[in-house]
């Protein structure tokens, strides 16, 4: 990675880069002892910032000039003072670390030292003016604030080592001791005494101990450079358990973790902020929508123990498996997907896009078979099977109120898909699954054919013929209305999924007031079942050769279109082997 010919930018123009590494400051706010010498940390008078007195003395002895290398406030303590070469009274205050004495002076606080816990919970009156440049920081100064003239934030992009794209990097002009990611709040893993990262959201923190600055990288890279002193730090992260080795998959993994486009707003935001520390609030706000959804993980195949095949779909097989020796999961294997089939990527993107509902099947991550290289999607195991089989096995025992509850959940899931401006395109009872946890819950699965509602580029037709909207057989494109064919054969007469959901919810809420209606309906249903006029066995006899697995219907549609063009209508007598 090349860093030469970059425009020079000094994030702390009033401070110098230290000639020796600054080892006396804590890197982890949970550590009690110095990482360098092992002595117990001391704490500053304000904000309880951790530092090592012994390593500070060692550092002071190594400095031979009066340059200011870090922004510190030193005050006289109230213990009896010993003799000094110069007279010091109780009002003594300095920013020159060379004047510090461990016997009679205390570190009040470090200005370029940020501890998220203490600096955000303690509201202490401090000086209103910046001691480096004299700028008014705040008319009423309570809490930890720094000068926007002396501490400058910048951002840029560096090349990712996971995929061939540039990823954002944020250059912050202070020392940050946080041990949790500011994006996902997971614990950070320490790589060195100056580097840590989050294996969940892929954010890397690299600090410079010569300048007390930090680079926050939103993705994985192998090197980074301090903006002030230009020192290059190598980053060694074992990507075995987080990278698939495939460009398309790794790019998607990053996509689920960060909203890269939002980082371009940082510069304009900080130009209008009087306190550079507000950048943290900005990042948390901008990333909130991204991380409210589950991040897709790369799961090594060795963590998966396949138990048995439970179903075969249009694009592969579904098996029951155990993940990490404890979690039952469903593994959907996409046949012949060595080169990453579009159906696989389509499904993982759609699942992530529609994750914010309890009625869409939940995912854990993706993996790849080590021999065939087929892509596999790891999802929550639906132990209750699909709705088609459930109705066949339990038809006689399913009361109207139960059917209404199922319909509420199904319509909620489809509404989520449509609200995301997607259409399912393969919506049928075989793709509606029962999850048995604490309560029975119906979820929508198999989003491999879903696509944006305004995308008509995909003309392939897959699915179960009984559930394909009639207008598709007449050459019409898929639409949201195609997902609700059960309401009316004419798409213009079909209500939206929102209207369906509202109606079903209204029925369910008023079920007690309309109890008489449900009672009569139950009596009618029971009578029809007893007289053998109603039941799944009758529909089986009607279509003994029916295929309920999604498959390509393009040849069938072409055949229908050819017949329509020659005779002007579709005959019911033709045998299409459905």
TrEMBL record:
Q: Which residues form the Protein kinase domain?
A: 304-578
Name of the protein this chain belongs to? Kinase-like domain-containing protein
- Name the domain of life this protein comes from: Eukaryota
Keywords attached to this Swiss-Prot or TrEMBL record, sorted alphabetically, are: ATP-binding, Kinase, Nucleotide-binding, Serine/threonine-protein kinase, Transferase
Q: Can the keyword Secreted be found in this entry's annotation? A: no
Q: Which GO terms describe its biological process?
A: immune response; JNK cascade
CDD domains, per database record: PKc (cd00180)
Alphabetically, the GO molecular function entries are: ATP binding; MAP kinase kinase kinase activity
Q: Which organism is it from?
A: Rhizophagus clarus
Q: Which Pfam families match?
A: PK_Tyr_Ser-Thr (PF07714)
InterPro entries the record matches: Kinase-like_dom_sf, Prot_kinase_dom, Ser-Thr/Tyr_kinase_cat_dom
Q: Does the keyword Transferase apply?
A: yes
């Amino acid at each position: 990675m090349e860093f030469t010919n970059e425009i020079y930018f000094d994030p702390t123009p009033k401070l110098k880069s230290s000639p020796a590494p600054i080892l006396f400051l804590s890197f982890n706010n949970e550590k009690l002892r110095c990482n360098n010498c092992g002595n117990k940390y001391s704490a500053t008078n304000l904000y309880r910032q951790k530092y090592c007195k012994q390593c500070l003395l060692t550092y002071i002895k190594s400095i031979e000039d009066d340059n200011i290398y870090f922004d510190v406030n030193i005050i006289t303590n109230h213990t009896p003072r010993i003799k000094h070469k110069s007279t010091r009274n109780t009002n003594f205050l300095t920013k020159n670390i060379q004047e510090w004495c461990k016997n009679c002076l205390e570190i009040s606080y470090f200005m370029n030292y940020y501890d998220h816990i203490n600096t955000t919970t303690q509201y202490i009156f401090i000086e209103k003016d910046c001691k480096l440049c004299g700028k008014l920081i705040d008319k009423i100064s309570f809490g930890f604030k720094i000068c926007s003239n002396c501490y400058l934030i910048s951002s840029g992009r560096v090349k990712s080592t996971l995929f061939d794209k540039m990823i954002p990097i944020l250059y912050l002009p202070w020392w940050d001791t946080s041990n949790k990611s500011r994006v996902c709040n997971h614990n950070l893993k320490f790589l060195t005494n100056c580097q840590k990262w989050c294996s969940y959201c892929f954010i890397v923190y690299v600090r410079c101990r010569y300048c007390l600055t930090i680079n926050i990288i939103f993705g994985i890279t192998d090197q980074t450079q301090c903006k002030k002193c230009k020192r290059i730090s190598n980053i060694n992260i074992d990507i075995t358990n987080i990278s698939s080795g495939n460009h398309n998959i790794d790019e998607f993994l990053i996509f689920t973790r960060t909203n890269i486009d939002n980082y371009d707003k940082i510069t304009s935001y900080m130009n209008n902020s009087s306190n550079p520390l507000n950048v943290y609030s900005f990042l948390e706000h901008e990333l909130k929508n991204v991380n409210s959804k589950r991040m897709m993980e790369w799961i090594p195949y060795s963590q998966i123990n396949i138990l048995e095949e439970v179903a075969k779909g249009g694009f592969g097989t579904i098996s029951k498996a155990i993940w990490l020796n404890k979690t039952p999961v469903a593994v959907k294997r996409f046949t012949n997907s060595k080169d990453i089939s579009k159906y696989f990527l389509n499904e993982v993107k759609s699942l992530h896009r529609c994750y914010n509902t309890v009625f869409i099947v939940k995912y854990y991550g993706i993996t790849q078979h080590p021999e065939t290289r087929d892509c596999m999607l790891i999802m929550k195991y639906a132990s209750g099977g699909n709705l088609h089989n459930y109705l066949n096995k339990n038809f006689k025992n399913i009361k109207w109120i139960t059917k209404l509850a199922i319909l509420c959940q199904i319509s909620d899931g489809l509404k989520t898909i449509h609200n995301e401006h997607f259409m399912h395109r393969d919506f049928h009872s075989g793709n509606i699954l029962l999850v048995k946890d604490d309560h029975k819950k119906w979820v929508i699965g198999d989003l491999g054919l879903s696509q944006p509602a305004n995308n008509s580029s995909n003309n392939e037709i897959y699915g179960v013929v009984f559930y394909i909207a009639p207008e598709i057989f007449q050459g019409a494109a898929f639409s949201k209305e195609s997902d609700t064919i059960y309401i009316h054969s004419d798409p213009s007469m079909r209500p939206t999924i929102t209207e369906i959901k509202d109606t079903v919810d209204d029925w369910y809420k008023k079920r007690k007031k309309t109890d008489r209606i449900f009672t009569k309906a139950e009596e009618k249903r029971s009578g029809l079942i007893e007289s053998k006029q109603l039941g799944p066995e009758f529909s089986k006899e009607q279509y003994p050769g029916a295929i309920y697995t999604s498959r390509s219907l393009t040849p069938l549609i072409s055949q229908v279109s050819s017949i329509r063009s020659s005779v002007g209508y579709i005959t019911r007598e033709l045998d299409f082997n459905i």
